[in-house]
Amino acid sequence: MKGPSLSAPDFTLTDQAGGDWTRSEHGDAACVLVFYRGDW
Amino acid sequence: MVGISVDDPRQNAAMVEKLQLPFPLLSDPDGTKAIKPYGVWHEGKDYARPAVVVVSPDGRQVFRKVGTEFSDRLDEDELVEQLRELDKETDLELGMVDQPPPETQQPEPGEGAFPVDALVPYFRGVRFAAIAMGIRASAAKQEADALASQAERYIEAARGLQG
């Protein structure tokens, strides 16, 4: 990615156990978001 | 690391168990909470494009790679190399933490989910199709070779899941 970094929107999503997962609560290290099609 | 798709949490529980994933899978059914805000919604398909976004601890997108379709994705070695390069840039202070293994609930695979025993033959088919495509369409040989190589890595990974 070239140029200035974009800000990263915060979000809360439901995880595979039914709990909430909020990006900004995992800010002690870099976070790798892997988007994919699903239905596997 | 987290995976994000339109699948519901029980489908994601099934996928975590099937693929023995060491990271959580998050559900964004209509894409409005994360997939669209990050600009990776595949219009007309109603799911996410394959994409990797690295977010720094101070909330910036410091790496983005967005694929055109489901097989066009960053390979694992390239992702690790990108993370190492980013970590060398001291102002980013990416940090490294242990990630606890994800817990799951009662799994419920989606209708299109492959059973684990189907993964090896499926990716063998992908590999042979990619090889044939590379032979027939010389202009696409580089992409076809990359897809064949990707399929070979997935075959090895799937064999590991079969015990």
- Cα shape of chain A: extended
Alpha-carbon Rg of chain A, integer: 13 Å
Mean pLDDT of chain B: 91
Fraction of residues in H or I helices of chain A: under 10%
Main sheet of chain A: which strands, in order across? 2-3
Element-by-element helix/strand order of chain B: EHEEEEEHHH
Low-pLDDT runs of chain A: none
CA(first)-CA(last) distance of chain A: 29 Å
Number of helices of chain A: 0
Q: What's the oligomerization state?
A: heterodimer
Separation, N- and C-terminal Cα atoms of chain B: 25 Å
Helix content percent band of chain B: 40-55%
Strand order of the largest sheet of chain B: 1-2
Count the helices of chain B. How many?
Answer: 4
Which secondary-structure class do the elements of chain B indicate? alpha+beta
Query: Most extensive interface, residues per chain?
Result: A-B, 32 and 66 residues
Number-wise, the strands of chain B total 6
Quick overview of this protein structure:
The complex is a heterodimer of chains A (40) and B (163). Chain A is mainly beta and 40 residues long. Chain A has strands at residues 6-7, 12-15, 20-22, 31-35.
Describe this structure in words.
The complex is a heterodimer of chains A (40) and B (163). Helix content of chain A is 0%, strand content 35%. Chain A has strands at 6-7, 12-15, 20-22, 31-35. Chain A has a two-stranded antiparallel sheet. In chain A, a hairpin with a 4-residue loop joins strand 2 (12-15) and strand 3. Chain A is mainly β. Chain B has 163 residues and is an alpha+beta fold. A two-stranded parallel ribbon of chain B has the order 1-2. In chain B, strands 3-4 form a two-stranded antiparallel ribbon. Chain B has a two-stranded antiparallel sheet with strand order 5-6. Chain B has helices spanning 9-19, 76-88, 116-136, 141-161, and strands at 2-5, 25-27, 41-42, 47-48, 51-55, 60-66. The model of chain B has no long low-confidence stretch (mean pLDDT 91). The longest helix of chain B has 21 residues, at 116-136. In chain B, helix 3 (116-136) runs antiparallel to helix 4 (141-161). The chains are: A mainly beta (40), B alpha+beta (163). The interface between A and B is large, with 32 and 66 residues.
